[in-house]
Amino acid sequence: MAIQNPPPWGYYGGPPPSAPSIPAKDLRPRRLWYVVGAMLGVVLAVAGAVLLAVTVKDTVDSVDTARSFAGGGARTFRFVAGETKAVYVSQSGPGHVECRIPGMPSGSITRPDSTFRITSGARTWERVFEVKPGGSGDYTLTCTSELPARFALGDRPEVGSTVGGIAAGIGCFIAALAATVTICVVTAVRRGGHRRRLAAAWTQPPQWGAPLPQHGPAPGTPPPYGPTPGAPPPPGF
Fold this sequence. Notes:
This protein is an alpha+beta fold. Helix 1 packs antiparallel against helix 2 (159-202). It is rod-shaped and about 105 Å long. It has helices at residues 32-61, 159-202, and strands at residues 69-70, 74-79, 85-91, 97-100, 109-110, 117-120, 123-131, 137-145, 149-155. The mean pLDDT is 84. The strands form 2 sheets. Strands 1, 3, 5, 6, 7 and 9 form a 6-stranded antiparallel β-sheet that branches. 16% of the residues are buried.
């Protein structure tokens, strides 16, 4: 008679169950975190756009283009003591410009050490002079240029705050991308790990399914004491 080995799952067990289909709602963390990551990215991106828009608007509005005048002309402005103003020019190319304010003490108009330009509509305005009035009052600004040009008075540019506002806006965009990607990737990785743990616990074989010993003595095992089952009894019995 051929000796058959028991199946790998034992006589009292069944075939190993197939991998279960785990509902997505049972996994942790919840899919709500995908929405949280997307919403956070949107909020940061909107904040960055607002910062950039406000910074650009404040910079453009710092030049009083509504009261500009042509080169060779003049215009009267109100100056306040201790409040530095800037004179801007818009012309087709580099050209020598001159500005003066009759009645204002000498040295009130100075040339800045750096260049600052603002684009508003179709015109680019460049700062060419700064005015530091010694007293408050109405003064007439007269400017000339080698090229056809227009002049305007505006606020002294705050380069540090302008650069800071632009950097903050760009930083918000970078933070939006980083936060969204990080939250979504971490959520996906943790949900995948939770799925594997649940599947491993589901498919673990039962402890009572251990295989039974084979029929008959193993090869090389000495015969048991007593008569062999089925053999005739010895004489005298």
